[in-house]
Amino acid sequence: MTPALERFVLHWGDMGATWGVNRSVAQIHALLFVAGRAMNAEEIAETLKIARSNVSTSIRDLTNWGLVRRTPLRGDRRDFFEAEGDVWEMASKIVAIRKAREIDPAQAVLKSCLDDAARDPAASPAAVARLTEMKSLIDLLNDWYAQMNAVPKSKLLPLIKLGSKAVELLGPFLKKSVPTKNER
Known about the structure:
Helix content is 68%, strand content 5%. By secondary structure, it is mainly alpha-helical. The longest helix has 33 residues, at 87-119. The protein starts with a helix and ends in a 14-residue tail after the last helix.
């Protein structure tokens, strides 16, 4: 592995650890992503200098998440694995995993807290109002995610590239909103 690719694999592992994903899982994903070919577990373990058992556990996680798939090679009885090579597909799967692991549970707890606070006469109206506002924002972002997730990749890329120019183009159609602190 070249120094640049090794640096990428190590950095991806650090990012994974920051996101709550086991460092080895993230490093294996990065290695398979940049390898551009299927690799077997022994080769992965040797390249990353990690235990074979760690590779097996990590591969199972990556396979369950749809980021890695088993790929048979003719004439070899071992299992080989390759990463999703389409960066858009990979990013979409990672975002979906993170949403399911972090946003969805937080949304459920927020709803429960808001319901309880709204029924509790001791809860301050300001606290209930803030929880309501936060829940509205989370619900809005979840709805936006679902809508954007349904947009075909061929149409999503130009939309993303449009960025803040979309505000200019849609200006007449946008409702006047309450200015944020930064806009006041």
